[in-house]
Write a structure and sequence with these properties.
- By secondary structure, the chain is mostly beta strands.
- The chain contains one helix and 16 strands.
- It is globular and about 50 Å long.
- The chain starts with 6 loop residues before the first strand and ends with a helix.
Length: 209
Amino acid sequence: VRDVCSIEIKSLNASLEGLPKIDAEVYNSGSLPYTFRVLIEGKNRVWSSKIFEAPGDLKRVILYFLPSNETRMKIYFCNKIFEREIETKEKVFQEGNQFSINKARVYSNFIVLEVFSNASSEVAIMPLQYPENLIIESYVGRLKSGKNFVKINFEGEITSERKISFVVASIDGKYFSTSEVKLEKKVGLEYWFFYIFDRIKLFLYSMWL
């Protein structure tokens, strides 16, 4: 008899070439559907999006991360935590000024980043240092040369303006930059003005890519 709520890792590969990434296949071996998140804990904490999985489903999860000598993978599902150690080594990147984050505005469940890039690049934007009570996802995609607008989803409560640091790195690992930005938290009519403004910018930016 299958457990009501259970999970299996069918495959797990950790690549340290270029920008390190985890490539895993997660299988729902139980009899109930659920949503899950994957967390990679290395030099930074990187969360996947919420993923729905019915019994018998197999879902692939790819996450870029910064490895340490003690990296762990955790899967949160059904009020349970599945844990596994990942054999990695700390990797040092040469920091440059290819990318910079100039502004960050926070809304109820997402952050809009204004990112400047010196050239068109495939990148991952990951949180580096942030409060442990927050779940902050990553962005993986293309940046065009110049100003870019990126949406980062999060869970948790940000009650006041605070500083959070992000990594912007090209997928091939050649370019690596960190930025600490103050999250701008608008209230009242100003909140809705910037909300609509940023939504339009994100839509237009997605059309230009």
